[in-house]
Amino acid sequence: MFMVLPLVPLPVSVTEPTGMLSLTAATRIIVENDADAAASVLADVIAERTGLRPAVAGPGHDAIRPGDIVVRRTARQGEQYTLHVGDTARLEGADAGLFYAAQTLRQLLTDDREGWALPHVDIEDSPRFSYRGVMLDVARTFFDVDTVKAFIDRASSLKFNRLHLHLSDDQGWRLQIDSRPLLTERGSTAAVGDRPGGFYTKDDFREIVRYAASRHMVVVPEIDLPGHTHAIGLAYPELVEAPVMNDGLLAQAKELGEALPAAGEPYRGTGVGHSSVKIHGDATWDFLRDVLTELAELTPGPFLHVGGDECLGTAQADFDVFIERVTALTTELGKTPIAWHEAGSAQVAEGTIGQYWGSTTPAGEHADHARRFAERGGSVIMSPSNTAYLDMKYDAEFPLGLDWAALIDLQTAYEWEPTAIVDALPAQAILGVESPLWAETIETLDDIDQLIFPRVAAIAEVAWSPAATREWTSFRERVGGLGAVWDAAGWAGHRPSEIAWSTR
Questions:
Q1: In whole angstroms, what is the distance from residue 323 CA to residue 327 CA?
Q2: Considering its fold, how many domains does the chain have in total?
Q3: What residues are labeled active site?
Q4: Smallest Cα–Cα separation from 177: which of 63, 21, 282, 298?
Q5: Within a domain: residue 497?
Q6: Whose CA is closest to 112, among 23, 25, 42?
Q7: Where does the Beta-hexosaminidase bacterial type N-terminal domain start and stop, copy by copy (predicted)?
Q8: Which domain does 54 fall in, by range?
Q9: Are residue 103 and residue 151 in the same domain, yes or no?
């Protein structure tokens, strides 16, 4: 009888011969074909999980012997990898594939009370979707560089490859822009409630990009436009319209005791839809060209996210003009624009990617908006708020999170299919999946862990594993085996009682 291997996301193919490979002080990591980076990652994850740090042997090593772990970089490109464990362990793939193979091996490490071991296994693996993202909102709450790196560690361990940073919102502007210094001098000082503000220097941002790349994640920076722009007005009031109240904002402010947004004053509430840049002003477009040019120069990845959501105080015709123009500007700067699905109302630039954040049962024109990105030669990232939003509460009593989209327990986060949401959207037009973490209710890394674990593992499997192999009962058992893996890494999180969590 085979053990249940705690593999999340589930690989494409797993075969389990009988037997175990013991890890001892004599275990070596053998490096072949310049796989040094992957070998270093593997040594770190083995040491973290077991306390053993295998010696790393490079060119000129002794003959491979039983118990060794061989890391071989292959010419085949992409994120696919193979992992074989028998008398030796062998990991093969290109750079990203080897990194993911190391994460899989981390999950396989087993404490059998006689020592650490790996079960014999043969794995062939590759991702379903090329875009597998998580988003961190650093605008409502500012998180420092070390916290962002910790978030990257958690996400990359589950084979996510995109980090979407929500860098601006009504509450704060979070990135140094040399041509517009008042954005950080005045626009970065606040956050939700009484939390401190903050911003990333350009060197900070470069370090985040570098660290993400070392974990095979591409940073997708977002400047939210034309709404969610109250903080811009603190720095450059001539560029923004006066706040426009809406019924939802007024009701929420009354219920939560939040102050309403006021021109020229930091906004520390959580209401939305009240702000807009001046869409037809020449000064606005000079500003946007300056900002997006610097952001493009800072960003080696192919994407710039330009927002486009919740512009409740903006006339539809004005919104459409703005989206058409800002996506064209982004394309001109050599980047692929991404925009929230509302932007599909406009003639977005050819190839613009939409990010769908509506329900798994689309309301109103949400599905139409999403389809239009594909019609314009683009694609769609699926982020349904009632299954993929990591900031929603697990249940009504959970102390962190919101509930406007849904209460999302682990099974709800797992049991949805990206291709089944928007009718008549071709499956090939779905670029991938992203799971956002908005920050209205969180302040610390521990808060982040409480909301993302274990649901981020469910989203990881939706994004990586073949649809035909996904099954809740299997996932429930496998994810429980990751309890000890996450504990060893120092990742706390929520542990739903319906899951049998491992402790060894």
A1: 6
A2: 2
A3: 310
A4: 298
A5: no
A6: 23
A7: 6-125
A8: 13-125
A9: no
User: Which of 103, 125, 147 corresponds to the end of one domain?
Assistant: 125
As beta bridge partners, residue 72 has: 32, 92
Same domain, 102 and 138: no
Q: Are residues 135 and 120 in the same domain?
A: no
Q: Which two tokens stand for residue 480?
A: 């429980």
- 78 and 202 both lie in a single domain: no
Q: What is the pLDDT along the chain (504 residues), one digit of tens a residue?
A: 345 899 999 999 999 999 999 999 999 999 999 999 999 999 999 999 999 999 999 887 889 999 999 999 998 889 999 999 999 999 999 999 999 999 999 999 999 778 999 999 999 999 999 999 999 999 999 999 999 999 999 999 999 999 999 999 999 999 999 999 999 999 999 999 999 999 999 999 999 999 999 999 999 999 999 999 999 999 999 999 999 999 999 999 999 999 999 999 999 999 999 999 999 999 999 999 999 999 999 999 999 999 999 999 999 999 999 999 999 999 999 999 999 999 999 999 999 999 999 999 999 999 999 999 999 999 999 999 999 999 999 999 999 999 999 999 999 999 999 999 999 999 999 999 999 999 999 999 999 999 999 999 999 999 999 999 999 999 999 999 999 999 999 999 999 999 999 988
- Both structure tokens of 373: 């990105």
| Predicted structure pTM score | 0.98
| CATH number of the domain residue 114 falls in | 3.30.379.10
Query: Do 57 and 116 sit in the same domain of this protein?
Result: yes
SS3 sequence, 329-380? HHHHCCCEEEEEHHHHHCCCCCCCEEEECCCCCCCCCHHHHHHHHHHCCCCE
